[in-house]
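Homework help board

Subject: predicted structure for assignment chain

Our instructor gave us this sequence and asked us to write out the predicted structure in C-alpha cell form, then describe one feature. I got the C-alpha cells but I'm not sure how to describe them. Can anyone check?
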Amino acid sequence: QVQLVESGGGLVQPGGSLRLSCAAAGSFFSIGGMDWYRQAPGKPREWVATITADISTNYADSVKGRFTISRDNVKNTAYLQMNSLKLEDTAVYYCKAVVKPSPDSRYLEVWGQGTLVTVSL
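My C-alpha cell output:
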C-alpha cells in the first residue's frame, strides 16, 4: 500500500518562505508525475504545480516565479519551495502522485493528507 506523507506547513508572515515535502511510503515499483494542489477556505481545490517523471515543470500563474517544485527520486519525495508568500497563498496544500505498484500494473493516483499553510501578520 502506498501513502503520501506531507510535512512543512505552518504559520509564516507575508514575504516569508516555506518548503513543503511529500514523501511516498510503502511498496511500489515507480512514481510518475507529482503535483501540488491547494484549497483555501470556501474555495475549490486548485492546481499549483506539476513535475513530471522527466523533470518537466509547470506552474499556475498565481505562483509562477515564487514557487519551485522539485523531486528526489532516491528519497521518493517531492518538494514545493514557496518564496515571497502572500496572504492569498493561505490554504491546505495537497500533494498528488501517480504510482505503479508493479512494472505491469496500471497507475494509481495517490493523494497526501494535506498540510496547512497560513500566511498572516
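Reply (TA_rk): Your C-alpha cells look well-formed. For the description, you could write something like this. The first strand starts at residue 3 and ends at 7. That's the kind of observation they're looking for.
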